[in-house]
Amino acid sequence: MKRLRNFLMSFVLLVIGFPAQAIITGELIMLRSAKQYDVAMENLQSAIKKQGYTITGIRQVDEGLAKSGYKSDKYRIVFFEKAGEVANLKKNYPEISPYLPLKIVIFAEANETLLVTSDPAVYIDLFPDPRLQELFRRWHQEVTGIMQNVRDSK
Amino acid sequence: MHARHARYAAFFLLMFSAFTCMADKGEQLYVDNCAICHGHQGQGGVGIPLGLEAFLAQTPDEYIRRTIRVGRPGRIMPSFYRLSNQDIDAIITHIRSWRDIRAPAWNASPIKADAVKGKVLFDAHCVSCHGKDARGGKGTGLMFSRPRDLPISPPSLNNQGFLNSVSDVMLKTIITHGRQQTPMPAASQFGLSEGDVNNLVSYIRSFQKTMMTGEQIIEEPAVIMYTSAYSFDKTLENIKRAVDNNKFKLIDFSTEDKGTAANNTTEAKVYFCNYDLINDALAIDPRIGMFLPCQITVVNYNGVVQAMSINPKRLSQLFNNDELDEACQVMHDTYSKILKEATQ
């Protein structure tokens, strides 16, 4: 029975496949990883690089909190951009600069890890210049790709 | 004989694969849309638990269906207008698969009682947890990882999403029996009679407006921007001083973009923090990191010096959290003050 079920399942999966579901709730992209924080953090960093981005900084919010006497969990903000792309953009659109580089927030919740970022597609509303739409759409694809990659990493 | 067997087998296979397919689709949809806040097994997190026996036994499928559709405006839980009816049914099937508990039937018959008497009872027994006007506890859901005075934050009962999802009969059941394994007590613990419970139901129902109000999005500009009366370097110095004047700690400062930005643009960023504020903000919404660290950008663009920051009020609109909106109003005013001090 179990074997029949497994067989059927693999068949169903083969034929239909799991459609890559967007993990978008509203305009934020969020993800809960069943992995421990350290593993999820590693997955995130390699997923960012795989999409062709460079990590430009990692902020340790919890360390600052700890220094000021607060107890908290691991909490980091990971910044990333494509070499040259952001500098080039700021040349003509300095007002986008406060929103850059792109970032993903990652923090531990008990034995699991939560990741949050804003969907770059919201920039289409924030900065409605038609010449920027294609770039924001690509960022949307790539950032969604990063989050899905973390979700699916073994 | 063989043919009949084959037909049975085919029928069985078809039913079976349809069933497993539905279950797996539901699981995947749940993982992608709900687990982030409610946990993989419904144990709760940013959202409240969905897997508890008491919850599943009190909750008709229709309540979950409506909740997914309308969300909880201003209380983090989004509305999932993109999901189809089939998707929602699959999610409910998945939630039901956690425990062998039959869902109660949906019963929409109204309970008519005395809301004024209900308010007196509410203020005596419920307000300490559910807040003034039943607006809900501070923060939402359950976060084991952050200190809270209750293991689960009491949900908002005057929320239009809740009132558009719950029936009077369901309200009565919850108040009568409480919810085991959560801080929500049963009416008997307060010595309340059935009539009292009905009055409480009427009071809670009195907050419902006739229709779901759509989210009112007020257009906010993306950035707060001031043109400086000073040179680039002087503006930068002013920003650092203004940050300090406003009780923030300077944590970093970069002009690294200077070389890479185009020749007609010079840029510097000033990063700063206030850990008291961050700690308070984390209790409101753990996703607050999207606003951090505080950052002001100074640019010299074709000879014009401008100082700017993100507009926290605009970013806050993505989070569907009224408490966060309030905090972001404060942050908006602080940014504006710093920028003004430094540029004028």
Q: Helical proportion of chain A?
A: 40-55%
The chain-level mean pLDDT of chain B equals 84
- What profile does the largest beta sheet of chain A have? 6 strands, antiparallel
The percentage of residues in β strands of chain A lies in 15-25%
**Could you tell me which chain pair has the largest interface and how many residues each side has?**
A-B, 54 and 62 residues
Number of domains of chain B: 2
Shape assignment of chain A: globular
Classified in CATH, the superfamily of chain A is: TT1751-like domain
Helix content of chain B: 40-55%
Overall tally of domains of chain A: 1
Morphology of chain B: elongated
Number of helices of chain B: 15
What is Rg of chain A? 18 Å
Q: Based on the structure, what is the oligomeric state of the protein chains?
A: heterodimer
Number of strands of chain B: 5
- Which spans of chain A of ≥5 residues are poorly predicted at pLDDT below 50? 1-25
What does this structure look like?
- The complex is a heterodimer of chains A (154) and B (344).
- In chain A, helix 2 (37-50) packs across helix 6.
- Chain A has 6 helices and 6 strands, in the order H-E-E-H-E-H-E-H-E-E-H-H.
- In chain A, strand 1 (24-25) and strand 2 (28-33) form a beta hairpin.
- Chain A has a single domain (2-152), classed as 2-Layer Sandwich (TATA-Binding Protein), CATH 3.30.310.
- With 154 residues, chain A is of the alpha+beta class.
- The model of chain B is unreliable at 6-17 and 257-262 (pLDDT under 50).
- With 344 residues, chain B is of the alpha+beta class.
- Chain B has helices at residues 2-33, 35-38, 53-58, 61-70, 85-96, 115-125, 127-130, 160-163, 168-177, 194-205, 232-245, 257-260, 275-284, 312-316, 322-343; strands at 223-227, 249-254, 265-273, 294-301, 304-310.
- At the A-B interface, helix 1, strand 2, helix 3, helix 4 and strand 5 of A face helix 1, helix 2, strand 3, helix 13 and strand 4 of B.
